[in-house]
Amino acid sequence: MKNIPCPACTDATPETVSSPDRRKALKSTSALLLCSGLGLARQVLADDAANSHPKVGDQLARADSEGRPAAMHSAEILPNARPVPAFPLDPASGAMRDGSRLNKVILIRVAPQDLHPDVQPYAAGGVLAYSSVCTHQGCEISEWVPKDQTLMCYCHFSKFSPGRAGEVMAGPAPRTLPLLPLKEVDGVLVVAGPFTARPGVAKSA
Ligand code: FES
Q1: Whole-prediction pTM value?
Q2: Pocket around ligand 1: residues whose beta carbon is below 6 Å from it?
């Protein structure tokens, strides 16, 4: 029987196998496989970034960002205003860590006179990042009550004091709101450490 060399193993391929059209087709197929492999790898990395916990050095991006998320500056957080929901942003890949709602924070600016000394190390120019997940039954905290300077959960009206490390001031919430430490780098908000406790309804870590 005539011995036909394998086209994948040698350059000495017979004419029927190594025609220009055949070589072009093989190149295209290889390129396609390489591209789909790279695309898959990129997708896996993006999913990993989206699902992983906030990391030191992450920036923050608005939770309602459209298009490419942008790093937030501390000046965007105004005093005595509703908290701004945000997710950590991996500056290397540009991916938001929005795969888990436990990564979501609310940003609030607290006046210097209302900031307890114990909380100051966690603030970036007066801006604090708290978990947005209520420690009672996990509802989203979205309201600011100027009258008593508290963050409020509408589900059962728990109130938390941002100036006092997220202490529970009213309602059924069983524990303080976890803080995500921040620092400021050239005006940009940057994560400076892990959450002070596990976000959500679970007991503190
Ligand atoms: S879930 Fe927030 S007070 Fe009940």
Answers
A1: 0.78
A2: 134, 136-137, 139, 153, 155-156, 158, 171-173
